[in-house]
Amino acid sequence: MITINRKLITYISSETRTQKVSHYILTAEFEGKSVLLSHPNLFLYKKTRSSQHTSARYAGILVNFYKFLSTQEKMIGQDISTYHVLADNRDVMRWQADRQSQRLALQSAKPSTESIIDEAHLLMVFFEWLSSEKFPTNVNVALKTWKANFRSRRMLNYLQSQSKVRIDASNIYVLDRRNRQRKFDFLISDFEIKALLETYVDPVYSVLFTFALGTAMRPMDIVRFPYLGNAENTHIMPYSEMTKRGATTTYKVYDSKGHKDRTIVIHMEELRALQENYITPYYAARKKLYKERTGQECPPDILFLNKNGAPVTPDMISARTNRAKVKAMEKWPEFRPHIDFYQTRHWWPTQYLLATYGDLLLTESTDALVAAVSQVIINQLGHEDILTTYRHYIDMARLMWRAHKGLAMDLVSGEGCLAMNFTKLLKRPGMYDEDDAA
Fold this sequence. Notes:
Blueprint: E1 3-12, E2 20-30, E3 33-36, H1 38-48, H2 52-70, H3 83-86, H4 89-106, H5 113-132, H6 153-163, H7 169-182, H8 190-199, H9 203-215, H10 219-222, E4 248-253, E5 262-267, H11 268-294, H12 314-331, H13 343-357, H14 366-381, H15 387-404, H16 420-426
Antiparallel strand pairs: 1-2, 2-3, 4-5
Helix pairs in contact: 1-2, 2-5, 4-5, 4-6, 8-12, 8-16, 9-11, 9-13, 11-16, 13-14, 13-15, 14-15
């Protein structure tokens, strides 16, 4: 199997002139050389440069598929630069079958059948782009012959021949059911918030998590929250130095997903918690470490630094959250494995709806609720049109309100539903140690 690496790059694009773009690129390693994969890299630039998360996901799928192709007999002796031309619908189907076969051999709940098929859908976006750009390819997106039907007897026989073990549909269904049970996608609970915050080894990540709970900012946006703001954010500074004109303040998020700007609302108590739990106890020491690392003063537009004085990045948030989750699952088996940093994005709109409507959630129609506050949530989350997603939040808020009434599950509660209260609940002497690994 060929070695393919992915790497995140950031540069000034000739198309955007002055605007930085970031996306992943793929390189293949063979005969002591590293070769850029031109067509996948062009695709990643054209289609994924607006979101590092999206770019990482597509890059991962392409790496997986290309590695699979390198094991196929028809690709032996072929240059990897021609894989996109030589691959066809049957290869895409075999790739799905190969993933299912490996999963069954390991009796693993992951990747689920749903995930395997969804990622095949995303792979077809690549081939659709190749076709639209007039690049040659043998994958016909219009035909459904690329999609694996794991219920068919023919496919089950193929899986059996590939994995050398007896396979029937019930085996797949059992593993998928196990996956769904583990991934039960309900709003993160108060217990899970507390558990995750307790297992972060660097307090900057617990502060980032609670701040994200209170603002719904994406990781790419929250890591750029400044110590001292500029332009439309000149009023942003440590809480004790800010002019207080009400319970909330505004914050302009620049160059977010899709290179779009938006204005969000932040509760002043979230900024107070930010100062109490991070700026006052940690920022000065980490700012000094930054200078030792770089030889320059830490610029005022950088606030969040890890214990080594390095600016926190979205990838660092993802890696440290995953590490904290693993520790939480070891300590508390009931901690659900699907919990990640992105749960903060679901928490904010649901809590907003609970605070706004209360009992009305159980009596008013969805359309009436949507009309009243959808724009607020659209602005805060940074979506252009979230009608379907918004209705999902309405449904989730209704379930949570029923839980609050004692019908099922528990409601995250606190003084004014402020995220910073979780940090106060957890804060105790010796909980965090600057000697912990970042």
